[in-house]
Design a protein that fits this description.
Blueprint: E1 2-10, H1 13-42, H2 50-59, H3 75-97, E2 118-123, E3 129-130, E4 135-138, E5 142-147, E6 158-163, E7 169-176, E8 188-193, E9 197-201, E10 206-208, H4 212-215, H5 217-228, H6 235-269, E11 272-276, H7 280-283, H8 289-295, H9 297-310, E12 314-318, E13 344-346, E14 352-354, H10 355-371
Parallel strand pairs: 8-11, 11-12
Antiparallel strand pairs: 1-5, 1-7, 2-6, 3-4, 4-5, 6-7, 8-9, 9-10, 13-14
Helix pairs in contact: 1-2, 1-3, 2-3, 5-6, 6-9
Amino acid sequence: MQLRYSYRVYPTPGQQEALARAFGCARVVFNDGLRARQAARESGMPYISDGELSKRVITEAKKTPERAWLGEVSSVVLQQALADLNTAYRNFFASVTGKRKGRKVAPPRFRSRKDNRQAIRFTSNARFKMLDNGRLRLPKIGDLSVRWSRALPADPTSVTIIKDAAGRCFASFVVATANEPLPAVDAEVGIDLGLTHFAVLSDGRKIAAPKFLRRTARKLKRLQQDLSRKTTGSNNRKKAVVKVARVHARVADTRRDWQHKLSTTIIRDNQAVYVEDLRVTGLGRTRLAKSVHDAGWASFTAMLEYKAARYGRTFAKINRFAPTSQTCSACGRIDGPKPLNVRSWTCPCGAVHDRDINAAINVLAAGRAERLNACGAQVRPAPVPAQRREAGIRSGAARCSARSAEGIPVLQGRENVKTTWNSGARRGTSWPGSPPAHRAG
């Protein structure tokens, strides 16, 4: 299993300039590669292979006066930026042809120097090194001061230097580790996620929703009002943007820390954990959107999933359309839908149910039924990839990023470039994954 360990780094002013230079060079290589492939498609030329693209936008570009400064940074940084572009194209083609399930993926887009979040990646080929004095040595950047909160369990295979919107820098290591099974226990639990209570367990426990964003709403309102009064493009506006970003970063860090502690406790105390397969993106478009995003259900279930795989527990999601809130956990009668203000109800069989506890009990029963097949063999858990994929795409915009394992965030940005891929398909082109002409549009 691959895990990600992130540590805060404190670069000196000179190292900050070197990092900014590396961020810029990686962005330029990514944009040059994307521009070359777009130009080839518009002119009816075959799809440019990965090797040919690397030779064109890196090796040959360094010999030109316009791109000679690419040699000032590590070549691994440039190769990894191009690898992110290649991954973005593969994911896009897989989505177009139907090989990639889920939401549709947009084609790659250009990165912008105005993005507040930047990242570069070094693999083992870059020969980065952790020194005995606790510093991290990176090629053509120097020895970075790292705040080691804990030791790495093994030698890392890659490290990503990330600069977030709040101006903080992190070193994110990808480490391959073996699973660490915990002693078996008899308890199993079903979890019903909600807003009034963040989680209700099938054993009757209710965990209150912390509402981290709501608690910071007054401070955020004041800072965002100050930001709105600043002149666009001024230095004061840039400072105000950072102040808002710092508050959001503190909210995200606090929520993540709380979810890690809660998910670890649940995994340690239970042999099997079952949750509903909620569609958070759909709930995020309702009038409860702010509360849904503040709760962070998706990140919490992702933590449960990878920790279950790491510690030898069972994790499963039940069908999101299962009527867990409508079914009596005592007799199995489906009593029909109920409005959200109904928090308890009485079944004709005489059982009085708390809405959330009854749903959690039904989640547990459905999870157990799904986990065992007719022969009693365990079906789940399935292999779980590392959190936050190192290179990925968010629907609607190509995001060669990572949301540790866990993914590796990479550079993001935008330019006023619009490309329509599903229309005007040319016959006879050799672009992999291109839709047939009769399916275009």
